[in-house]
Give the backbone structure.
Amino acid sequence: RIDADGNRLWSPDGVPVCTASGWQWNPDLTTDGHKGAIITWQDGRADYNIYAQRVDSNGVCRWTPDGVPVCTAAEVQEYPEITTDGKEGAIITWRDRRDNSDIYAQRVDSGGATRWTPNGSPICTDASGQWDPKIVADDSGGAVIVWGDARNWPYPDIYAQRVNSAGQVQW
């Protein structure tokens, strides 16, 4: 954490969010609503899964050491993106290869519990393949997710979907 004047407020080298074996990469973060953050990343400790951790305003990790699993389904989950849920938790989206190349999302509450379908709610599972999801809060406890989509190949398009606070697609 760095203040407005550029001063480091926690340890000089930062706070470890995850020190599990394997690689951790593609991090993204959002506010927790209390001057802390919720961080998500792609994790290689056992397969390629999505994990998250909450760090409070003092630099203390608040959830399970090394993060909570967001999605541990078979195959590869990658490129997580995160936004606030407006309730001290977060909504995370990612590209998921359990069936093809699809877009999934999961809500994690302020205590680190997943709130939607285990291993995520499907956002788009069109057989053509999707990639590079981005997410923004909708200010109603849900989010809008956009991604690249190959269903009109060789002319890929951008698609969008709104997911409500219960994890149900709306459009």
